[in-house]
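Section 5.1 Outputs to date
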Amino acid sequence: MSRNAKINTLLLLVVAALAVLPLVLGLGDHKEEPFTGADAEAETAISEIDPDYEPWFSPLYEPASGEIESALFALQAAIGAGVLAYYFGLHKGRKQGEARADAKALRSASVGE
């Protein structure tokens, strides 16, 4: 097994452990919604500190259910991942194209000598 394959396997195991351990250890069992987002946690903390607090504005769109909200969040994450993958692929492709052009220019220069 190559060094890169070992590193990739180790990273995959770490990611799997990060996803599974909170569920196995029962973290959040004492909460009504154990794995809420940071926004919900902040809202809870603010209401505990200042019960009379009123938000400055309201959301432009309020999804009908938590499932729709999760689906929209997943779509947003997928679009972001696609944009990043496109950028990095384009960048790598340009580098490879430049390297091929340089190699071709070197070959033609050495043949011409």
